[in-house]
Amino acid sequence: MTDHSNLTVEKIGGTSMSRIRDLVDTLFLGGRRREAPYDRLFVVSAFGGITDLLLEHKKSGEPGVYGLFASAESDHGWSEALSRVADAMCTAHAEVLDSAANRSLADGFVRERIEGARDCLIDLQRI
Q1: Per-residue pLDDT reduced to its tens digit, 39-81
Q2: Residues 106, 75 within the same domain
Q3: pLDDT tens across 3-42, in order?
Q4: Domain total for the chain?
């Protein structure tokens, strides 16, 4: 039986996610040896600015994908906004991932899910 008495759950906010290179040793290792970084669960937010693009910019009030979709009768203005979200996520990957192979995997993961979300929203708009 595994002992989980030392297990911790830690949340990393969007601003911290955008500074992940600076924080990797303190956040992820947290004083642990590199070979023993276990017994920690991380709940991570989207990179800084992504939630604003999805929902609404908290300072300007500019609508994000949700606001544009909710107020659209038949136009697809939200679709352009969704593409901007994908681009912003891929830009974030470029800033934190050194390996081209890892960036490609991360970007493909995001684009696949963005296109799935776009298909769902188009179907919902038809209803």
Answers
A1: 778 788 888 899 999 999 989 999 999 999 999 866 778 999 9
A2: yes
A3: 667 777 878 877 777 777 777 666 666 666 655 556 778 7
A4: 2
Whole-angstrom distance, CA of residue 40 vs CA of residue 102:
23
Angstrom CA distances, 123 to 32, 62, 65, 118, 127, stand at 48, 25, 15, 9, 7
Helix, strand and coil in the chain, % to nearest 5: 60, 10, 30
Q: Is the pLDDT of residue 112 over 90?
A: yes
User: What's the predicted TM-score (pTM) here?
Assistant: 0.77
Please name the residues in contact with 111: beta carbons below 8 A apart, sequence gap of 6 or more: 86, 90
Residues 6+ apart with CB under 8 A from 53: 64, 65, 81, 84, 85, 88
Q: What is the DSSP letter of 10?
A: E
d(Cα 2, Cα 47) in Å, to the nearest integer? 33
Q: Which amino acid is at 107?
A: D
Q: 17 and 78: one domain? A: no
Q: Which of 7, 9, 27 is nearest to 17 (CA)?
A: 27
Q: Which range marks the domain in which residue 104 is found?
A: 48-127
